[in-house]
Amino acid sequence: MVVRNISDATIEQVLMLGKSAIIDFWAPWCQPCRHLGPIIEAIAEANPDIEVCKINIEENPKAVLTHKVHSIPVVLFFKDGEIVHRLVGLQSQETLQGIIDKEL
């Protein structure tokens, strides 16, 4: 599965799909965000049944406010359109996969 880039206009569509979803809130100037990028791609490959997305906080302020993103990177885990887990900061693939296995 490919990581999907989403926006303020498309985030709700993703959450309404009824699938489990992971959204990575990031910015191009954020070094930890750039390190997290390949990990998010690996998670997408390992979990094709989950919608894995990235959203640039600089270009999508509405999603940032709606989902109370105060620092980055932050990864939100959604089940049935609701946040079930939130991780802030650079995380390992094992940590992300553990949450997927437990929560989604």
TL;DR?
By secondary structure, the chain is α/β, with parallel strands linked by helices.
Write up what this structure looks like.
The protein is an alpha/beta fold. It has a single domain (17-103), classed as 3-Layer(aba) Sandwich (Glutaredoxin), CATH 3.40.30.10. The chain has four helices and five strands; from the N terminus they run βαβαβαββα. A five-stranded mixed beta sheet has the order 1-3-2-4-5, with helices on one face. Strand 2 (21-26), helix 2 and strand 3 (51-56) form a beta-alpha-beta unit.
Within the CATH hierarchy, at the fold level, what is the topology?
Answer: Glutaredoxin
What is Rg?
12 Å
Helix content estimate: 25-40%
Q: List low-pLDDT spans.
A: none
Give me the strand/helix succession.
Answer: EHEHEHEEH
Going by CATH, what is the homologous superfamily?
Answer: Glutaredoxin
What is the residue-averaged pLDDT? 95
Classified by CATH, the class is Alpha Beta
Question: Roughly how many Å apart are the termini?
Answer: 17 Å
Structural class: alpha/beta
Biggest sheet features: 5 strands, mixed
